[in-house]
Structure formats: structure tokens, C-alpha cells
Design brief:
Structural class of chain A: alpha+beta
Largest sheet of chain A: 5 strands, antiparallel
Oligomer: heterodimer
Order of helices and strands of chain B: HEHEEEEHEE
Order of helices and strands of chain A: HEHEEEEHHH
Strand order of the largest sheet of chain B: 2-3-4-7-5
Strand content of chain B: 25-35%
Structural class of chain B: alpha+beta
Shape of chain B: elongated
Distance between the termini of chain A: 48 Å
Number of helices of chain A: 5
Strand content of chain A: 15-25%
Largest interface: A-B, 37 and 36 residues
């Protein structure tokens, strides 16, 4: 009777925590794959560079450079900042956009930075950039995963459970990271 | 019967949990969106900033010291957010390098005003090159994370915190 009750409880706990965290698990899984491959792509932003030419800027003073460049490009946006980076480069900062202006040639590299829709948000949560209260919720989620793993082990009995195939899957699944650590560290 | 009662109780508890989580998420979102400036890491504790021009003109005077610099963000690591370049009005810039993942500067902060604090450090150009020896430099992945050299040395601030104005 006690054994029967124990199994009912773990099934209920596993089911309810599973439902509760299913959405977040999917988001974290997507983010996990995305950031695993950070050497190959930028999981948070898309950065595009477009080259333009606006003609000679000889004689344009630095304090009027931004207005002159934006005027020639037909942009009415007020820049966040404009900085002389070196004798040959002037940078104009717009919203999510930077104009790298070569002076005095007037060659421009227009750099546009956009958040990668969906990925930026899930990475923001997964990598805990939110900090603060999200840290607490992420900790609760981690405990939830631990409970899911522990209860999951005991849900099935018999040949497919811990008494049979389940035992071997558990051993192999635990051994893989341990062997990897032994070989790599 | 006993199991049914247990399941019913769990359902009630889950409803309460769900409400708690929703409140937490809303508060977290509110916190993230609030304010005109955003603090990164430990923020900035030093009251007085060192001019970047002075820092780069006589770096030996500041090596190993905790310094604060103010300026405009003119560069950010767009992949990992692991560094940002703070430049003064004369075009003197210094890179603020932070530990990957501990502090992440957003790529969209380009052009914003910032204050940053950390320990001013310098490494010989040769040592920096050796650090990446044997690594795959395809696409200049690492070069982008390293500050520009001043003579034989590369100077940067090992950042502990920053405040970026919106």
C-alpha cells in the first residue's frame, strides 16, 4: 500500500512539475543549442555592413560632420553621439546603427545591429542577463529539473525500469559526461 | 483515494505557484526596464574619473590601479558582449574587458554615455599574440576581443563594473 502511494506521489509530482516547466525547458533547449555554437555564429544579434559613398568631406569641421553626413544620406535622425576616432575616421551613432565615416574621402560603412528575434530573448533568460529576481526563478527551475530527474527514475517498474533497461540507460547516460571529463581535464 | 487527495492538493499548490511566478516575472521585467541608466557588474564606486588621455599618455602611473573612466561607447563585442571601448571627446579610447558571461555589454549600447571601473592593466603585444597561438583565427574571432596596441603594449581596463546611460 505504501509502495503504491509512493509511486502515485512521484507520478503526480513528475507530471505537474513537467507541465509547469515544459515551456521554459523548450526555450532553454533552443538557447542551449544557439549558444553552444557561438564560435560559428552570433546567437544574439545580426550585424550587417553596407558600404556607401557620400563624396569628399574635405574642409567639414568635426562639430558639423554629423549633420553634413546625415544630410547627404537623407537621414533626419538625431545622433546619440558623434566621435572623431582618429585622423581618418569619424563615427556617428544612431539608434542600433553606427556610421563609420572615412575622412576626408566620404566612404561610409553603415553598420546595422539588430536583435536576433526570439534568440535574443531566450538567451537573455537562459544566460541570466536579467539577474535579480530571474536568478531566483531560474534556481527554482533547476530544483524542478532535479526533482524531474529523480522522480523520472522511479516512475516505471519492471524490465523497462530500474530493474532492466532503465538501469543501463541511467549508467550509460551518467558515464558519458564523466568519461568526457576524465579524458579532457 | 489517498492518491486522489494528494493530486488535488498538488493542483492547488501549483495554482499558487503559478501566481507567484507570474508576479516574479512581472517584477523582474519591471526591474529590467526601469531607470535611465543600467548598472553592469558592481557598477561604479569611484567618484572621480581619470581622463583617458592621461591614462594612455602615462600608463605606468596607473598600472595595477583601480580606475574609473567616463566617455562614449564607441565599440562593443557584438558576439559575447565581453568588452566595450570607451572613448573621450578627443578620440582617446580604452577598452574595458570583462569576464565572459559575468558582465555582458549589449551591442545596442553603441553611442551611449558610460562610466566604467576596473583595474588598469597592460600586456606586451607579443604575450597577447602568444595567448592565441595555435588557435583557429579564421574570421579574426580573437583579434576583435583584443585592444589596439600602444607601442609595444596593449592597455585595457579589467572591468569590474559599469554604468551605461540610456
Amino acid at each position: 500500500m505504501a509502495k503504491f502511494r509512493f509511486r502515485k506521489v512521484i507520478i503526480a509530482v513528475h507530471r505537474d512539475i513537467g507541465y509547469f516547466f515544459a515551456g521554459l525547458t523548450v526555450l532553454y533547449a533552443i538557447s542551449g543549442v544557439a549558444v553552444n555554437h557561438i564560435e560559428d555564429w552570433n546567437p544574439n544579434y545580426t550585424v550587417t555592413h553596407t558600404e556607401r559613398s557620400i563624396g569628399d568631406l574635405e574642409g567639414v569641421p568635426d562639430d558639423g560632420m554629423a549633420a553634413e553626413v546625415l544630410g547627404r544620406l537623407g537621414l533626419e535622425e538625431k545622433p546619440k553621439a558623434a566621435v572623431r576616432m582618429s585622423e581618418k575616421e569619424f563615427r556617428i551613432f544612431l539608434e542600433d546603427r553606427t556610421l563609420h565615416v572615412a575622412t576626408p574621402s566620404g566612404q561610409i560603412v553603415d553598420e546595422l545591429v539588430s536583435r536576433r528575434a526570439g534568440f535574443f530573448q531566450v538567451n537573455y533568460l537562459h544566460l541570466n542577463h536579467a539577474k535579480g529576481l530571474w536568478t531566483w526563478f531560474a534556481d527554482i527551475y533547476a530544483v524542478g529539473l532535479l526533482i524531474l530527474a529523480m522522480t523520472g527514475i522511479f516512475i516505471i517498474t519492471g524490465k523497462k525500469g530500474l530493474g532492466g533497461r532503465g538501469r543501463w540507460l541511467l549508467v550509460v547516460g551518467t558515464a558519458i559526461p564523466l568519461i568526457f571529463l576524465l579524458l579532457k581535464t | 483515494m489517498t492518491a486522489d487527495i494528494v493530486i488535488l492538493d498538488m493542483g492547488g499548490m501549483m495554482k499558487r505557484n503559478l501566481m507567484f511566478v507570474m508576479i516574479v516575472v512581472l517584477l523582474a521585467a519591471g526591474t529590467a526596464l526601469a531607470g535611465d541608466s543600467t548598472k553592469y557588474g558592481e557598477g561604479v564606486g569611484l567618484e572621480k574619473a581619470v581622463s583617458i588621455e592621461k591614462l594612455l599618455a602615462s600608463p605606468a602611473d596607473y598600472l595595477g590601479q583601480e580606475v574609473r573612466v567616463d566617455g562614449t561607447i564607441t565599440g562593443v563585442c557584438k558576439k559575447r558582449g565581453c568588452w566595450m571601448q570607451v572613448t573621450d571627446e578627443k578620440g582617446n579610447g580604452v577598452r574595458i574587458k570583462v569576464e565572459d558571461g559575468v558582465i555582458v555589454f549589449p551591442a545596442t549600447s553603441m553611442g551611449h554615455t558610460a562610466s566604467a571601473q576596473g583595474v588598469f592593466e597592460g600586456v606586451p603585444v607579443a604575450a597577447q599574440a602568444k595567448k592565441h597561438e595555435g588557435e583557429n583565427h579564421e574570421g579574426d574571432k580573437h583579434e576583435a576581443c583584443d585592444a589596439k596596441p600602444h607601442g609595444e603594449m596593449v592597455y585595457f581596463i579589467k572591468g569590474t563594473g559599469a554604468i551605461i546611460e540610456s
